[in-house]
Amino acid sequence: MTPAEQFQVDPEIAVERGSEEPALIVDVEGFEGPLDLLLMLARQQKVDLAKISILALADQYLAFIEAASQVRLELAADYLVMAAWLAYLKSRLLLPESNDAVGPSAEEMAAALALRLKRLEAIRGAAERLVARPQLERDVFRRGAPEPIVDVKRPEWTATLYDLLSAYAAQRQKRALARVRVPQRQVWSLAEARAALERLVGGSDDWSRLDEYLVAYVTEPGLRATVYASSFAATLEMVREGLVEIHQHAVFAPIYLRKRIGQPNGAIGPHAAAMKTETKGEEEGRG
Amino acid sequence: MRSLAKQHEVIAHPRAMGGDYDRDAVPEIRPEELRLLEALLFASAEPLDEKTLAARMPDWADVRAALDRLQREYASRGVNLVRIAGKWTFRTAVDLAWLLARDSVEPRKLSRAATETLAIIAYHQPVTRAEIEEIRGVSASRGTLDVLLETGWIRPRGRRKAPGRPITFGTTDAFLSHFGLDSIGDLPGLDELKGTGLLDGQLPAGFAVPVPSDDLNLREDEDPLEPGDLDLGLGPRVSEG
Amino acid sequence: MRSLAKQHEVIAHPRAMGGDYDRDAVPEIRPEELRLLEALLFASAEPLDEKTLAARMPDWADVRAALDRLQREYASRGVNLVRIAGKWTFRTAVDLAWLLARDSVEPRKLSRAATETLAIIAYHQPVTRAEIEEIRGVSASRGTLDVLLETGWIRPRGRRKAPGRPITFGTTDAFLSHFGLDSIGDLPGLDELKGTGLLDGQLPAGFAVPVPSDDLNLREDEDPLEPGDLDLGLGPRVSEG
Asked: ipTM, 2 decimals?
């Protein structure tokens, strides 16, 4: 195959590659650099790359470059560098190797070039196989409508023992002091007691127990002391005014009272006054 | 009834049961249109109607019949073929929604009111809501007890033998565990609280801190809870955020 | 032998054959973990690894065995369970590309230079730009690496401990996912290439990288990237169309 024939074949390849990759056309007919060109030439030797004749390949390359430069004046520098290197390699291969040569021998250089070509060819094969694999969203597909995981936030409550104890202590202390400071005692005034007694006593002429009279008013246990105390004081006042009579047959026994009929300042008045201290003492003791 | 009969049949022929993994080794001969439908429905970002499916499927395929069969095939699976607004799509089985929810834990600090209430329950247990309110001097908001029940740190213990039979509350093992207490008796008493400065000296005479007890046995003045007591909104609720 | 026996059995009981639509009416009792796995894998937009699956599944489930069984179950279906980059996901069957191709937005076809560069990065990783150029025998245009970075299939890994400290490139999980590979060891023809020694190359000493690795850990001869390395026009760029 002459270089001229060689060059005739190339445009086809060039066009094919060019269409694939317009941006990367290199000066020489769409080859991607001298190595690419060399690989194509080597393939045309139609032998295993391992058995390639580097000498023949160098010849072909140099002939190709020469032919190409007849058509195009300019060639990319790396093609010319490769051409120069191949010419040098060719001369080394043809001349008997001198014994005192420094660096790699011509055979080593040739073998290195062959290896580079093999490696390029291998990676091209690998690239072809890679892109021939089924590709995602081209050949195989994932689920078109995935169902997103719902994020459920679950509160995890935290508190430290210190939080707990300080909260407890602070609020117990606050409440304890608050009770001392604000003695929210409800008091039955004497006037209230007297009004109630007058109403109660007015309805009956018979002896009645004072505490029974008061039951209706003692709705809360906390009020009991003040109701009793005020009522008793009111009773004594009403006795002094001669409105009611009271009677107690023993210390701590129930106190009876009734509306006084007739004599304004009755005989039991002093008696009642004598009982006053004892009874009052009892009530205060309860309060 | 039918499903009962079916189940019985399956039990009578245990070899037919799914538990036998080797069963899958039997090469399944499924009509090709099922594969096509599966792929189309799986890959589509939207539910597809029969017309669209038919247009994509080969002419010979009976799309309607294949959809029916596919729906039956997937009915028992983790993914079902469902029809939504007349269009077909694969959806994960409704009963597996829990699987697709990620529980993320969001630490939240207990509010001041809840902390106080918890402390009162811890020290004064068994204690009723009215008693808590009396100790705190504030009426307890429903939310506070709810939050505490949600933490799992308190539990309704029983009902107080008193008018209204109010529910009594106490702490749980989870409470001890969270606060690193070996037993409820490890809660500091009056002297210790004073010692740490949490309580100062200005306390009225007679001020006491109870010795807490979370004994599982009910007290004399407690009745056991009745069935249904735990459903009265007292159980843990799903958080509302 | 075993599968032959199975087939014989099936022929002896024609009712068990797949051709019979009624067969599906028998409620299939499959282990619950298969349903759970199906649901999890179907729902997820991304492949899930076994650890993640196990964390979501009940403790009693043998995730590994269930995955194997599920993979066999779906092998003949229009949707297959596959392992990608060590993670599990459902994908449509490869042979149904013709049916679904219409769905796909034609992905930009990579140039020959980009394809070769990608292959070199995949098979020789970690690899520097100079090494790529050495193999291809051409200086790599900046655009080629940019295009590949934009796909998300390659990433700068680190810097080679060598003069000039060049950046090393490797592939990503997105690369494995796109080409349906479980690991970089599954690259087509990798064993062959290793056998020929062509991956060793005759690279200058220190450049020799016998087996590709997309291991996230840097090699001995790699330094980590420095802040700013990714800003030097090497990061994925916003597509310019």
From this structure: 0.60
Query: Please, which chains are in contact with A (at least 3 CB pairs closer than 8 A)?
Result: B, C
Neighbours of chain C (3+ CB pairs under 8 A): A, B
Q: How do residues B22-44 score in pLDDT, each as one tens digit?
A: 444 445 578 899 999 999 999 99
Query: Is position B20 within any domain?
Result: no
C18-76 pLDDT, tens digit per residue, is 334 444 444 456 888 999 999 999 998 889 999 999 998 988 889 999 999 999 999 99
Question: Which residue type does A27 have?
Answer: D
CATH (domain of B189): 1.10.10.10
Q: Is residue B7 part of a domain?
A: no
Count of CB atoms situated within 10 Å of the CB of B238: 7
The chain A residues in contact with chain B (CB within 8 A) are: 141-145, 147, 149-161, 163-173, 175-180
Burial of C51 (0-12, 13-18, 19+ CB in 10 A): exposed
Question: Phi and psi at residue B56, in whole multiples of 5°?
Answer: -85, -25
Domain count, chain B: 2
pLDDT tens by residue, A146-171? 887 777 777 788 888 888 888 888 88
* Least confident among A59-68, B45-54, C160-169: A59-68
Backbone angles phi and psi of A170, in degrees to 5 = -65, -45
Q: Residue B126: is the preceding peptide bond cis (ω within 30°)?
A: yes
With a CB cutoff of 8 Å and minimum separation 6, the contacts of A81 are A34
C15 pLDDT band (50/70/90 cuts)?
very low
C41 and C126 assigned to the same domain: no
Structure tokens at B26: 């039997």
Positive or negative, the CA dihedral C110, C116, C121, C127 is negative
Considering B66, B97, B128, which residue would you say is the last residue of a domain? B97
Residues B150 and B54 in one domain: no
Strand pairing report for C167-171 and C154-160: antiparallel
CA dist A118 to A121, B116, C116, C150, Å? 5, 81, 14, 30
Q: Are residues B227 and B143 in the same domain?
A: yes
In 3-state terms, what secondary structure has residue C111?
coil
- Residues C93 and C132 reside in one and the same domain: no
On whether residue B183 sits in a domain, the answer given is yes
Of A184-193, A263-272, C121-130, C212-221, where does mean pLDDT reach its minimum? A263-272
CB-based contact B101 A151, cutoff 8 Å: yes
- Mark out the alpha helices in C48-141 (DSSP H runs): 50-56, 63-75, 97-100, 112-124, 129-136
pLDDT tens sequence across C108-144: 688 889 999 999 999 998 999 988 988 888 887 778 8
Question: Based on the domain organization, do B140 and B204 belong to the same domain?
Answer: yes
Residues B148 and B48 in one domain: no
Tell me which amino acid residue B140 is: A
Pairs from C146-152 (Cβ < 8 Å, separation ≥ 24): C146/C233, C146/C237, C147/C110, C147/C111, C147/C114, C148/C114, C148/C117, C148/C118, C148/C121, C149/C234, C149/C235, C149/C236, C149/C237, C150/C236, C150/C237, C150/C239, C151/C110, C151/C178, C152/C236
How far C83 CA sits from the closest chain B CA (Å)? 17
Asked if residue C38 belongs to a domain, the reply is yes
For residues B124 and B218, membership in a common domain is answered with: yes
Label residue B202 exposed, middle or buried (CB < 10 Å: 0-12, 13-18, 19+): exposed
B11 touches chain C (CB under 8 A): no
| Residues C91, A35: C-beta atoms closer than 8 Å | no
**Quick one: C203 and C126 in the same domain?**
yes
Q: Which of B80, B84, B148, B178 to mutate to test the interface with A (most CBs of A within 10 A)?
A: B178
Q: Which run of H or of E encompasses C149?
A: helix C142-151
Domain boundary among B52, B71, B97: B97
Q: Would you state the structure tokens that stand for residue B90, as one six-digit string?
A: 């694969």
Average pLDDT taken over every residue of chain C: 78
Domain range for B38:
28-97
